[in-house]
Amino acid sequence: MKKIVKILGLPVVLLLVYYLYINYPLDIISGFSAKSIASGHFIDQRSLEMIENGDNDVSIIFLATNKIDGNGKFATASVFGFKERKAIYREGLGATLINDDFDVSKPYEVPKRTKVKNNLPFPYGNNEPKDTVFANIDYAKLEKAVANAFDKKDEQNKRTRSVIVIYKDKIIAEQYGPGFDKNSKILGWSMTKSITATMFGILQKQGKIDIYKPAPIAEWANDERAKITINDLLHMNSGLEWEEDYGKLSDATKMLFLSEDMTKSQIDKPLVGKTNATWNYSSGTSNLLSGILRKQFKTHQEYLDYWYSALIDKIGMNSMVVETDMAGNYVGSSYSWATTRDWAKFGLLYLHKGNWNGEQIFNENWTKYVATPTNGSIGDYGAHFWLNAGEKFPDVPRDMFYCSGYQGQMVAIFPSHDLVIVRMGLKEDPDFDFNGMLSGIVGSLKK
Which of 85, 172, 53 is nearest to 122 (CA)? Predict the structure, then answer.
C-alpha cells in the first residue's frame, strides 16, 4: 500500500479506490483473488507468483495484494489494504472463500474416495497409455494443429495450458505449456456444470429421480414457479431472472464471492420469461440443482460421497476435486479441478454414451438428451452442455457437443469421429481460435 501511494500519490489512490468500490466492490476483487490463490496453491501446488501472473492477471483482479499461510492452509487478499478476504483449504473439499463470521473450528465432513486400482492403461486405468499408430491419421497435420494452439516463445496470445486428443480411446496427441504437465490439476470453471447435470442422469438411470417432475423447491409451491421442472433447470430454460455478468456486481459475482449458501441464490428470483421458452444461461441454476441433489440423500455425508462414488471415482477421475461453499454444498456451477487426462475421461464417458469399460453409468439416451438443443438457444445449448448444432464453429462437425468453462476450458466430444479433444487455458473465443484448432485436428483424420 505504501509503495502504491508513493508512486501514484494519496489523492489518486483514494480516487481509484472509490471508483473501484462504486463500480466493482472491493470485497469481490479480493474474494476472487483469495479463492484463486488458495485453490491454485493447495490443490495444484502452484507458487504465489505463478498464480498472480497467470490465473489472477485478469481485469482488475491483479490489483489485489495476496498472502499464503502454508501452515494454516489459507490465503488472504486485499485491495490497497482494504476489504481483506480469506479462503481456507480443507483436504477433500478444496478451497472455500469465507466470511468474517465463519467458524473455522467447526467440524466438517469430507467425501470418502475410492480410487481405481488395476493394471489397465489409460483411460480405464491409471497406467501409462500404450503407443498406438493409426494408418488413417496424418500425424504431421495433427501435430501442427496442436502446436498452433500454443504460444511461441515469449508470446502470451493464446495462453493454452494443455491439449489432449483421444481417438478410439487412444491418446494420439498431448502437449502442455510451461509449468504444466499430465499431473497438473486445472480448474474447469463452468465445465463443472456438465458434471452436475451428469449426476441427474445417473439418478435417473437408478430410478431415484424423475427430471420431468416439478423441482422440489418449497418456496415455489404456491406461485407460478411451481411448474418449473428439473428438466427446465437442466436446460437453463426456467424463465427465472438471473444476470450472468462477471465484469461487475451481478447475480453471478455476488453468488460466487459473497454468498454463504450458493444453492439458494436463484430460489427467490421471479419469473421474467416463459418456462421452457426463455433460455438464459445461469450459474445460479446449476447451484440450485446442486441443492436439489442434496435433497435426494438423507445425510450430508451421502451427498458428498455420491458425486465421487457414482461418477468421478467410478471412471477413474481420481485427481478431481469439486469444491464446496461455506454451507458445505458442491459449487456445481464453477469449482472443479482435475488433470487434463481426467477431464478427457469425462468426455470419453459421453462419447461411449454412458458406458465405461462395460458398465453403464447412465442410460444411453441421456447422451442424446444433453446434446439436443433447448428452446431459445439457437442450437447452441442442450442440457448443461454446449452444442455446435447452430454452427458456432463453422468448420467443425455439427454433432460436436462440449463442456465449456471461463477462459476457454473445453472438453469436446465428436460422436461421428470417435474423438475427444480437451483444451485448457486462459483465453477463450474469440481471442482463441477454437474453430481453427478443432477443425485442424479433425482434418488430420483421413476419410
Answer: 172
